[in-house]
Predict the structure.
Amino acid sequence: MTRTRSPLLLVAALLAPAIAGLVVFRLYPIALAVSDSFFNMVRGHQVFVGVGNYLSLIADSAFWKSLQVTFWFNLLINPIQIALSLGLALLYVQKFRGIALYRFLFLIPIGVSLPVAVIIWRIMLSQDGLVNGLIGIAGIPAQPWLTSESFALYSIIAIATWKGISYWMIFIIGGLQNISTEIYEAARLDGAVAWQRLWHITIPLLRPTLLFVLVADVSINFLLFAPIFMLTQGGPADSTNVLMYEAYKSGFVFGDMGRAMAIIVVVVLILLVIVGLQFRLLNGKQEKK
């Protein structure tokens, strides 16, 4: 009995710090957000309003606008990031002259913190910045990348993509390295060309890795906040006002913490549904095969 309990106690002791961190930094904030979403501040006192904050969101045009922007943002950025990460990973594992330089350039975004990257891009995308200078050489007039309703969201997508693809590339590289070279050699002997090997061997065998990258990428982009806060503040004309920034404005600009927490809960629920569908669809395809 003592021998049986000793390993269990050892495992519990080793897992205790991780479990404590999960509870304090993940589960407790979620529980607090759910609890606070049922209250409103009235004259300095919390008043229980039940589902009132959620019902008010239904008739709130600002909420629906931010929901639309969030979905459009994710509909664009996630396929772009995953496709580019896969392409860079495939290039990264190749062997040709100058590959060391390419690998160095690919990994630069990982070494730059997000706030620093955002500041650099803000300077580059300014009216007299590097990007407008480069397109000016081709005779294209300067563009208001961050101050135009037509360009702002796509500029955020470009910045987030530049920062994220190298990170996701590393996971895909790990998946590629787990694929046996003998499979590719057999495919070559059977006459399979490069695109056939990619479609019929690489992508199917990368499915678990791609599923992880897809779920993690969607989760991070759905909760993206810092670039929008630092560059556009949800503007111009709410064109970059995603749900996370709408929640921030509600809680810390207008002092409506109940509405902010209700938005956060809605974001988490939507994210859980999306991730659940991704697991179901991709795992379902894998089981059929």
